[in-house]
Amino acid sequence: MVYGTGMCGSCRVTVGGETKFACVDGPEFDAHQVDFNELMQRLRIYLNQERVALERYAAMTCRCREAEGEHE
After folding, report:
1. Maximum Cα–Cα distance across the chain
2. Contact between residue 12 and residue 23 where contact means Cβ atoms under 8 Å apart
3. Per the domain annotation, does 66 fall within a domain?
4. Is 41 within a domain?
5. Within a domain: residue 29?
6. 64: pLDDT confidence band, cut at 50, 70 and 90?
7. 22-57 pLDDT per residue, tens
8. Element of type H or E holding 18
9. Residue 13, exposed/middle/buried by CB under 10 A (0-12, 13-18, 19+)?
C-alpha cells in the first residue's frame, strides 16, 4: 500500500516552486503559492477514463436494479 507515503505521486502539487505531496507535506498549503494551472492539468489526465468507468458503473447498477425487480 502506497497511500499516505507520497510514493504514488497522485497528490503531487507544486507549492512555491517546490514539489510537495499533499498526503505527506500537507494537506494545508498557502494557496497563493500553489501552481493551480499545473494542478488542474494533472487532474484532467484521466478524465476520459473516469467518464468511461462511470458509464460502465451506471450501466451495471441499472441492470442490477432491474434484476432485483424481477425477484419481487
Report:
1. 60
2. no
3. no
4. no
5. yes
6. low
7. 889 988 999 999 999 998 998 888 899 999 999 998
8. strand 18-21
9. buried
Which of 12, 10, 17, 9 lies closest to 33, judged by CA? 17
CB atoms closer than 10 angstroms to residue 34: 16
> What's the pTM value of the predicted model, to 2 decimals?
0.60
Q: Report yes or no on 18 lying in a domain.
A: yes
Domain total of the chain:
1
Residue carrying C-alpha cell 507515503: 5
Q: What is the DSSP letter of 31?
A: G
Q: Residue 29's domain spans which residues?
A: 1-34
- In this prediction, residue 31 carries a pLDDT of 94
d(CA 15, CA 51) in angstroms, rounded, equals 29
d(CA 38, CA 57): 29
